[in-house]
Write a structure and sequence with these properties.
Elements (H helix, E strand, L loop, with lengths): L1 H20 L3 E7 L13 E4 L6 E3 L5 E7 L1 E8 L6 E7 L6
Antiparallel strand pairs: 1-4, 2-3, 2-5, 5-6
Length: about 100
């Protein structure tokens, strides 16, 4: 009986600890187009400059959606044959920017 109570307390503490470590996130959505022709750039890569494992690729309409931690981020957009472009964004918890 005592073991079950200790186990229940341990599991409860672990659940609270895990929930407190979860980051607040928001969504960044946009469209990437060619500056001259205004045509969508299919397959452009958008990623965080300092965390390049976090990123996405534009679809057939040049649209992208990227979930990021709330806060300020520096992103880079790359497309084969064009110069890369960096930009700053502010992501607010629970919103789409």
């Amino acid at each position: 009986m005592r073991f079950n109570i200790l186990l229940a307390c341990f599991v409860t503490n672990m659940l609270f600890a895990a929930s407190s470590l979860a980051q607040a996130t928001g969504v960044l959505k946009g469209r990437v187009t060619n500056a001259r022709s205004k045509e969508p750039l299919i397959g452009a890569v958008i990623k965080q400059l300092n965390k390049q494992a976090i990123g996405t690729v534009t679809d057939a309409d040049g649209m992208y959606s990227l979930t990021l931690d709330a806060g300020n981020h520096k992103l880079i957009c790359e497309y084969i044959g064009l110069s890369a472009d960096t930009f700053d964004v502010a992501v607010t918890e629970g919103t789409t920017t």
